[in-house]
Amino acid sequence: MSLKILVPVKRVIDFAVKPIINKAQTGVETKGVKFSMNPFCDIALEESLKIRESNKGLVDEIHAVSIGPTKAQDILRTALAKGADTSTLVDVGDEEVEPLAVAKILKKIVEKQQSNLIILGKQAIDDDSNQTGQMLAGLLGWPQATNASKVEINGDEISVTREIDGGSDTLKAKLPMIITTDLRLNEPRYVKLPNIMKAKKKPLEKLSPKDLDIEISKRLQTLKVQAPPERPAGVKVESVDELIEKLKQVKAI
Amino acid sequence: MFKLPKNLFRPLRPVFRPTRLYSSVPLTAETYKDKVSINDKFKKLNDSDIEFFKGILKDESGLITGDDCLGYNEDWMRKYRGQSQLVLKPRTTEQVSMILKYCNANNLPVVPQGGNTGLVGGSNPIFDEIIISVANLNNIRSFDPVSGIFKCDAGVILETADNYLADNGYIFPLDLGAKGSCHVGGVVATNAGGLRLLRYGSLHGTVLGLEAVLPDGTIYNSMNSLRKDNTGFDLKQLFIGSEGSIGIITGVSILCPIRSSSVNVALLGVSSYEMVQKVFIESKKELGEILSAFEFMDLNSQKLVGQYLKLDHPLEDEYPFYVLIETSGSNKDHDDEKLETFLANQMEAELVNDGIIAQDESQLRNLWSWRESIPEASTMNGGVYKYDVSLPLDDLYSLVEASSERLRGEGLVDFEDGSKPVVEAIGYGHLGDGNLHLNVCVREYSKSVESVLEPFIYQWIQEHKGSISAEHGLGFQKKNYVGYTKNDIEIKLMKEIKHHYDPHGIMNPYKYITA
Ligand SMILES: Cc1cc2nc3c(=O)[nH]c(=O)nc-3n(C[C@H](O)[C@H](O)[C@H](O)COP(=O)(O)OP(=O)(O)OC[C@H]3O[C@@H](n4cnc5c(N)ncnc54)[C@H](O)[C@@H]3O)c2cc1C
């Protein structure tokens, strides 16, 4: 048995950047804002690299794919520099692509690459959908293990542990399968200098949705984007007595 | 938007003072009784003085007495402790003026205090001087988004100022590890250098105007100065780096540059100090206008940070030296390309052995934390003797080697063995500015270690034509060593200025300059 792993990676506003809603209230401001790889995708990539490193000869190929604007190439170069072997950019321009369309595109890529293990982030931090992995599993008819906090390979069987309220839950499945990653699965590595140079020479194929016979259509309409109401500022008290007084006033005690 | 937990990917910690778990810091007046004795001409504080101050301050919280003064009496390194029984925290410049006028008329000595992060014992009293903290003077006054001129009270915390500027697309031209605690007024009073000096220059250039109160209560104000103003003496310069010796800064006007939209950070492993210098020259050539920081660190400093953060170093193998390079520019593609080409060339020429580049903001902050946590890591075993020096680049690191050798010769050092007083002498700093931080990390402060280090280190610096204080100032620590860097005439002129503005010597007495 050998693994052909597919890792989808999304270009999103860097998680450390505070997003600002645009003037037209149609979305968040993207001009002059730093973009990076979605942290959960980064974790998915890291896991695939770890599987390769700890199971000699098991992994045939790690293929990274990004669906997004031309700029998403940067994210793919990062993935290649971290250790992915090959990559595909599905250039959709500035169009926002909903999870179902993403899953349909990914299905085509899975077929093209003949992948048998897909590791992807449980969600992207921009739209927080948490749907793509599940939809892809549905379209492919493959078993899925979501929110992985531990992944173990035993022969052709993979067991995935997920954190649940009050404990953990372990799922087992045979290949092919889909795993979505949770936060505590691993800690992504840094990119090493020589690998940045090497990444420039690794394959990056560019496709359009048309090349894959996919029509992107929107099923959702954004009416308005608004910031949550601001929380009233706190008050400082000078003494314990005053604190108790204030708590009584708001009937907290 | 999904909110990731704050502690994901190990972000920076706030600047913690070294732990307070063990016994209190010995009194400076005890530790250094051979170096300093109380000046009897100063008046002893009494109840009627306190009543007077209460009348000025009005609200009770601005006046702290007795044991509650401890946090203000001790310094950040837990090396110095004063015996002040009174901390005053005025809310207006006028209150500062009334307080100083009274102290001046009554011969009551005072110590101006900002964020109390100074590293030379300048911000704490030695005996019972009154501490005047400007922490409650903390309003941002104005910001002009066209010129970039930012005006604020002296007690605004540096990070607060920088965050405010960030929201407006600008940056404070100075940054340092203590930014979460130190004040804008404090950094001006010490003329701090820090991590952005390479790019934006010293505060002597960026500060446009100041508001300050002189000992006699006079309020000096040049807050409305323009960038170009050649009308006689540039008086504000006297306060920049004066360390509270002639007046209290209450307001700062400073010119701020646009914040770069594209920032990259790389951490490199380098095999020798000679190579570090070569990489520096190359980085100036190839990165030119986008180079914004060039920091170097030795292996021992990184080992300590690893212990302190409880993390593995981001570079797998060990190297004698590490270099952190930051670029800041306005075009990411252009900057990436430049940095990557530069780094490829360095690897090819074998100047650099290994390296990594941050791919996102959290990695970028993490890489910085391996530089910015050194001050905290260096004190974690008990304490640190800090020497912040300027030297010609060639000799910069030799001082660390010379100090380490000297300590070794006396059998005082061991990285692991807890029975030796010294952990190690480590070196790091703003190589781009010719500035070395020599930190002698100790398990406890002791006279025997100090006497091996001083005046040896100061003599060494003088012989190699350096400065005994690149950026931290003189304060109490270096009060007897000014002569190693300044000549007699310079010292005489400084004393004359001090005497002119502070004839009774009430401002920060017992420190590097006396009236
Ligand atoms: C973790 C750490 C990292 C640091 N990194 C750097 C660095 O990279 N570069 C660098 O240059 N320094 C560095 N420093 C030291 C630096 O000197 C201080 O952090 C800072 O400049 C002091 O600001 P403060 O507000 O805490 O002043 P304080 O410590 O309160 O005071 C410092 C001196 O200024 C005087 N003073 C303070 N406020 C006023 C005022 N309003 N008017 C008149 N006098 C005043 C005090 O009397 C004292 O003499 C670092 C310190 C720490 C703890």
TrEMBL record, chain A:
Protein name in UniProt: Probable electron transfer flavoprotein subunit beta
Origin species: [Candida] jaroonii
Lineage: Eukaryota, Fungi, Dikarya, Ascomycota, Saccharomycotina
UniProtKB/TrEMBL annotation, chain B:
Domain of life: Eukaryota
Protein name: D-2-hydroxyglutarate--pyruvate transhydrogenase Dld2p
